[in-house]
Specification:
Length: 183
């Protein structure tokens, strides 16, 4: 068992992480992998419900998923139980795999060690520039309050989504527009 077995390759891998506080917390997180053949990774965690839950000893389960709508919704709110195919372990509908990690907080970072996981679906899919633009737009959206100039970058992502994305990517774009108010 190694990170690459679950689709986590060298670089930053965008996943939906689930932790537990009063309720399940879902959030897109970039897992940073330096050795895809190993078990260790890290994630940068700012002040958030995710970090608070981990400080209290919550599990850290990464869902590997390719649904831009799930990324869009979970950026702005926690997913309700209707989005899950399993609650034990918490697995979001449509996830390709999930991984549970041991977590040690280290300043702004969480040091992660792969404990176990499961591949649920083997799906082939080519890179879709529209999906990638959704992820970029969401990253910019989470930083927009700190840097209002990112609004222009979000609009550039919209253009790519409109040109290259499918139905789901365009629906995710509408969620982003609604939540941040940028057209």
């Amino acid at each position: 068992m190694r990170l690459r077995d679950f689709g986590l390759w060298n670089g930053i891998n965008e996943v939906i992480v689930i932790t537990k506080g009063e309720k399940l917390n879902t959030a897109p997180i970039g897992i940073i992998v330096e050795n895809e053949d190993g078990l260790n990774a890290k994630a940068k965690l700012y002040a958030s419900h995710t970090r608070q839950n981990l400080e209290k000893g919550s599990f850290f389960i990464a869902n590997i998923i390719r649904d831009p709508i799930i990324f869009a919704i979970s950026t702005f709110e926690d997913l309700s139980e209707e989005f899950f195919e399993s609650l034990s372990p918490p697995v979001i509908k449509g996830s390709l795999a999930y991984c549970e990690f041991e977590v040690k907080l280290n300043g702004l970072y969480a040091d992660l060690r792969l404990l176990n996981g499961k591949i649920i679906r083997n799906e082939l899919r080519a890179v879709n520039r529209g999906f990638n633009a959704v992820i970029e737009a969401l990253i910019y959206a989470t930083r927009l309050k700190m840097n209002p100039k990112l609004a222009e970058k979000i609009r550039e992502c919209y253009e790519i989504i409109e040109k290259c994305g499918g139905e789901k990517e365009k629906e995710a774009m509408e969620i982003i527009k609604e939540r941040i108010g940028i057209r």
